[in-house]
Amino acid sequence: MGSSASPVSSAPVVDAVAWTHVRNGRLLCVRTRGRTLFYLPGGKREPGESDADAVSRESAEEVAVRLRRDTLAPFAVVEEEADGYPAGTRVRLSCFTAEHDGEPVPRNEIAELAWFGRADRERTAPAVRRVMDELHARGLLAD
Question: What is the mean pLDDT of residues 116-122?
Answer without folding.
Answer: 96
